[in-house]
Amino acid sequence: MAITFYTSRVILETLGAEDYGLYNVIGGIIAMFGLINSSMSTATQRFLTFETGRNDTVRMRKIFSVSLIIHLLIAIIIIILGETVGLWFFWHKMNIPEVRLDAAMWVYQMSILSAVIMIISVPYNAAIIAHEKMNAFAYISILDVSLRLLSVYILLLFEIDKLKLYAVLMLLTQLLLRIIYGLYCKKNFVETHGRMYWDHSLFKEMLSFASWSIWGNCASLFCTQGLNILLNIFFSPTVNAARALAVQVQNGISLFSSNLQSAINPQITKSYATGNFAYMHQLIYYSSKLSFLLLWIIILPIFLNTDAILHIWLKEVPEHSSTFIRIILITMLIEVLSNPFSTTVSATGKIRTYQTIIGGIMMTTLPASYIVLKLGALPESVFNVSLCVSFISYLVRFYFIQKYVNIDTINYLHKVIFKLIPTLIISSIMGYMLSHIFTESTIAVIISSSIYIIISSITAYLIGLEKEEKQFIRNKIFFKLKLIRHD
Fold first, then answer.
1. Domain range summary for the chain, segments of one domain joined by +
2. What is the pTM of this model?
3. What confidence tens digit (pLDDT) does each residue in 118-151 have?
4. 325, 306 Cβ separation under 8 angstroms
């Protein structure tokens, strides 16, 4: 996360706000074409994890082989769409300064190639998650950000078009990571090597599952890349730069909660596969609450020190950045509560109605945002619309897991919501009261942020956790201290 924030600062400074915004909005076009791939990724991960829980090696071989073939076909489709519909949108709808058209087209083509590489990597990534080899993700993630840091250094060395060079470096990073993921899987997972299998019935089954995921993923993309393009149509690329920075903050912070969720997701699917519903319910409670608390400990100091942090982090802060970040942080807190709900529904395989309704709700974000912008609203309005839609989606998602896996509403409220609300209120009030004491200097930000983290951590421990959870944390701390003393 630290490297990500540092590289974002240097890249913004090196490329400039306009080129930085162009890079992100152009990448958004390709991401929208990756809609089918995102759906197949969900299907591949679900099917592999389900069969891993049942320890069916033959079925796992077939699933991996069929998914690899499907993703190769998707890569071809993305290239065709990118070079036809995507090019039309690029030339006729994008707001790109004429002097940067050549560089923007270069970025566009590099983005297509990067998308193709990521698509082919999906079955391998799904295999790692299914086998719960999170240490592999940890090491490869460190390599990923290290390569990005190296890319920033290379940007500073060469006096050529920085935007073109950055696009090429990001492509090479994706290619190297793809090779590493493939080699790791070939070495550790039996289903990823050997002869290719073809199973027509499995092909139809996976496509059927993915077809319903397409609607939900389409809605998700409309809430992200669609809004990015909408902001580009109504405003200048510098607004896209502000949004890109807000998303960088979102991605960096969400690592804490998403990594926890990634570790729990396979267990949710496997517990459903083996019929252990009581354990699955506990996983839903724990992942919702612990992900929220972990996220809140990081968010509170950033929320209270947003302006100061931005001026320390960046030499030139794009307009609207501070407001974008604060609204996105609130939205993240709502979304992290519902993350285990989607995994649970996928585990059941009953996604048709779920994806149709949730996708329909999420789809309203884009037309609603278009209307408010057409009426003359500020760029911040689209983030407020997204926040409201996320809250409604959370309530509807809970209704579905209550229906599909018989989760107890009173139990969920008692174990999750009634623990989080007082934690949130008390730590917020204490932090806000102390925020008036500090200035915006670097030292003051470090001190105040440390105090806010301590406040949110203590309130989370005392109020947010159950007795057995507190005991677990104490045991872990004492165990680590013993290891340190022994060393």
1. 1-215, 235-487
2. 0.70
3. 888 888 877 887 777 778 877 887 888 888 888 8
4. yes
